[in-house]
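For concreteness, we quote verbatim a single protein encoded this way:
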Amino acid sequence: MSTESANPPSTAAADDQPWSPRLWGLLAVLCFALLLDGLDVTMVGVALPVIGDDLHMSTSSLQWIVNGYLLGYGGFLLLGGRTADLVGRRKVFLISLAVFGIASLVGGVVNDGTLIIITRLIKGVAAAFTVPTGLSIITTTFAEGRQRNRAIAIYTSFGAAGFSSGLILGGLMTSLSWRWSFLFPAPVALAALLVGIALVPKDKGSGTGRYDLAGAVTSTGALLLLVYTVVNAPALGWTAPQTLIGFALVIVLFAAFIVVEKRVSNPLVPLGIFRRGALVTACLSFVALLGSYFSFQFLVTLYLQGALGWSPLGLALALLPVGLIVAYGAPKAAAMIGKYGTAKLIVVGLIAESLGLLLLLRLDTTPSYWSMILPTVLLVGAAFALVFPCANVQAVAGVQPQEQGLAAGIIQASGQIGAALVLAVTTAIIAQPETAGKLSAADTLAQFQPGLIWATVIALAGVVVLLPMAFRKPKPVVPVAA
């Protein structure tokens, strides 16, 4: 994904020039759009137990509310950035922001679980267009150097703020009604849209090249089918004809994706970029971090609220330190990169994640928050604060300028897609036949325990794979042809 267009970049804010109110307003619009993405991931997670009770959705169905968003976002993220280059950033940003707001509104008023999942998928696709386009608007509006770095730092901090505040807002909204967790982003998106119409600068797309729509459809279709097959395999049987046919179709779609990427002139993912070891390891660290975390949050939310009767707000407050540590610790972790390097900090972060999840395996039916849950929350927060900025820096280190956006998009997409696949396996592991009555806390914990072990294994696998690389001397980066 390139951030260049037919229009030359604006240098409205030179290093020694204060920002105008209009420039501040534009940055606020972009920041609030990113804030919505962070909010949407965590707000809805807190509401899952209440949604399940109200709409009679099973655990496997509830995971689609999370995975629908993750797969829509991860599957179309690279296409979103490419579309902004070709069509124009203003048009893509405003249209996708409007779609996000409308989908939020619809998701809050429907009474069918399938329709909710569809709106989540649509919101994920919309976010896949707003997020890379918003970053592209920043890089083409603010002059390169200190001012652009400052703008990007403010922009990314809103993502962390959305992640942390979403837990509290989700608890507050769900205390009123789970529907408010879906409705809340709608007026925020509307306000950002109205201000954005006035402030987002007009531009023209490059008009050169083609969309790799076939690549986006085959890759996202393969991922959706893979998650669907894995989640339903326990009920159908792993050797059932439907399951085997599903896996066979997944292989066909992935093969078609590779063929498409090798043949099109402007591939969605130039496969040659994966010959950069630093990018691959950064992506693996994101899969380990987000995959283990989303499974942890999914299971803990359902257990503490559904089985132990915690309130949504109580759960949100219990998990809040994760977001706070990320918001305040990530900038400090980024400052340590020059001294320790990204690889070592990433491994330390994944070790913290692994220790936190290992400690959580002590969970019982009468858990003390201070001794049994808080240590895990603090360690998981430290893991995010270390891995998130370091992996992003490592992903784009030494990458050619015209491929910076592509590398940044790939690591974000890998995290979202990896988290969706790990969560799908988690759901399959804990799947049990539906019972007539509600399970006891002890039975629910026994059901969820293998899922927690699986999440722990994912974090530990990240440590095992990446630990040797933390002590290697970095090799000179050589440009790789796509």
Notes: Confidence is low (pLDDT under 50) at residues 1-11, 476-482. Residues 213-263 form one domain. Residues 96 and 126 are 5 Å apart (CA to CA).
